[in-house]
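User: For a reading group we're discussing how well predicted structures match intuition. Take Winged helix-turn-helix transcriptional regulator. Before you show the prediction, I'll give you the sequence so everyone sees exactly what went in.
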Amino acid sequence: MNRIPQEKIASASEGLRAIAHEVRLSVLCHLLNGPMCVQELMEATGAAQSNLSQHLAKMRMMGVICNEKRGQQVYYSISNPAFADLVHALQHIYCPERCSIKGRPE
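Assistant: Thanks. Here is the predicted 3D structure of Winged helix-turn-helix transcriptional regulator, as structure tokens, for the group to look at:
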């Protein structure tokens, strides 16, 4: 049996904590469609700017999302395809009506 090192388990646990909030999961679901700026994310999630900014900062600090400045706007995107796969898996489990036969959101 392959033993997973404790530090890897702790790291995975931290990564899951970084996305384990309704606002953060909502942001990630929207970012599956591509980069979005804060204003777009506010409209999509219904979160207030100050609240959303705190969640974005936490996910950025944990490496879940990255940002890119385009003119006056900062656009956020999912930093690692594995996080996108994780969000797709969560959608498949908790929102199966949104998933196609292939298991990806429509």
